[in-house]
Amino acid sequence: MREGASKSMKLNRDLEKYIEKALEQKRPVKIGWGRAGDERPKEGEFGVMGHLPEGARVLCLGNLGECVGIANGGGTLTLRGSAGSMLGAFHQSGKTVVEKDVGARTGFKMMGGDISIQGSVGDEAGAGMAGGTILVRGHSGSNLGAGMTGGEIVVMGSVGSDPGIGMVGGRIIISGSCPPPPEGVDMRSIKKKEISEFGPLLDPLGLSLNEDALVLESANEIMATDDLPNFSISEGFEKISLVQNEDAIPEHAPIDHLTLLVANDSETDGLLLQIPWIVSCESAIGDDWGGAEIPAMVKDAPRAIDLLLVGAKELGECVTSLKLCSGLVFDVSEFPGLNDAEIEAILVSLRSRMEDQAIILLRGNIGRIEQLFRLVMDLELDGAVVECATPNGSRLASALPKIGLASKAMGIGTTGKFIFIETMNEPDAKDMLVAIGSGCTGLIAPTSGGDLKSKFEKLESELRGWMKEIGIDRMERIGRRNLRAKDFDTAAISGLRLLGYDRPLKMWLDLR
Question: What is the pTM assigned to this prediction?
């Protein structure tokens, strides 16, 4: 792990211990000072001091990086310094105060609580916010409150271009200069009752609003929603067949169909998959499971053998679940527009609450697979989950060369990292072997229901039968040489040899 991330994770882990003791003793936690009270300011840590619990009080000295104080759950954070982008993102409750300047997207998608900035903020402050209050004593960049649906933003200085663009709710109060708002945003003078309303927020800081202040509100009475396309998979692996090796497997030979997932540089036993299928579901608790010890990718109530899927909706509430699961699947597709540093900062905030041996995977769509694999390599993660559904209805056969080429280009295939194909339908034993043969670790897919324990026992038997039939005794020995396309069209989009042909055609890609 890189030095910056390691340093940031250490700060988070130390802080968690201090907060627990401080809550018991009803006192604040001070960071950036020595035991003798001498100043030792922090410098550049990112993804720190997030998910503060209710009642926690933290005072920090220093100039920090991205995603400081995200998903505040009710604590009070005071930073005597500056911060980078996405300060207080996904803020739920509590209070965050920064005494100097902060970067872009302050309070990004916040839902409650108060954020107070004594300096200025960058672009897109309050973007996507649904509740809470942001107070900026200085100036603001462009796109202030972009797409906000609720809450209030108060800026005592001037603001940049397009304030309130795309807003459908909430208010923006500007005491300084303001350019003409974009289409869909109304500008008016502040009302006397609003001056009184914000008095309790401003009085402690020696600030006040006057009748020259402006208020921006949405001109749209009805919230406009975009009709997003439905993602689907139009064709699975049914047009791909498995072919035999030259050597057969004796009837009573041992067959190894296990898959072991171990985090980078970890010496632990890891997560063992009896078959290369991780079930995707909301929770692995229910009648279908019957207590079966089958790993799953879940959004809620993870067990010790489950991977926890975290997207934008789960980020604020996932902190307690992180300690219970075997690994994390971070859905990068639900955080569009974030740069690499911001994504890494969020991951640092989450990883610092997990064991060192926890598995960390990134989830993204097949259409952006190069970016997904690059992030996995650059951020030194354990692997990727490739969501294969597309707006046009994908054919799984066409995903194979995309995964192979991107894996080769980013060097992910030679590092021992995991690549899972995520599909929309329950797989059979042949589907699993096709995925393994194409260079993936396994499949992630939902179940169609029924007794999962019995279903997995049957799939294990079918898997062993297929492996004996095609002549492989271990999973890692199956490759593209064992895969054939059943028709010319499938051969053309998959790069696989056509069943019955001994040599590839000119357009086929050599990904062996």
Answer: 0.93
